[in-house]
Prior knowledge:
The protein has 209 residues and is of the alpha/beta class.
Amino acid sequence: MKPDQKVIWYLAGDSRALLTGSPHLEAFAKRGLEVLFMTDPIDEWMLQRLTEFDGVPLQPIDRGDLSIEAPSEKEAREALDRENRAVLAAIEERLGESVKTARFTTRLVESPAAMVDDEHALSAHMERLLRAANQDVPTQKRILELNPDHALTKRLIELFAKDPHGQSFRDFVDLVHGQALLQEGSPLPDAARFAKLVSKLVVSGGAQS
């Protein structure tokens, strides 16, 4: 890692292929920061106790707020949240118990959205491991982070402005949420409906139609 890097960033998941395609890597790749991949099932258990190495703290990149954004980036992001509070509230209402909150982010570069957990919450990967072991795991409310520069996010805002209670807006919310779940390897709440929404988007000519 870079000499001035004060944290060992890591990402845990089922495979290297899945982690390589994670939207959480985008901001780190843009800044040239190293991220350690953890792909063995035992890693998540180990990381409950192994919180630092050689005096350097380990921190997951898919939980909590990132400390890599510049003050100007943070200020602009918070301003976007305030300006678009109505649409974010409508997204939260649509997704109900699935999300704790929706907000804009500087975490993403190419992807429209990503799911994030609170800093001390159980990770989505850990949830999947526990359920695979037949453990009873309560569903956690998670954070939906949106890329304000992505065409799908811009289209989402346009649809809200046109009709905040319309079916098109609700469909787009479900589409963006489903894509974020798929990219991290989590199951979809309704895979058949998601497939129909993707087909509908393709037929309509994409996000700019």
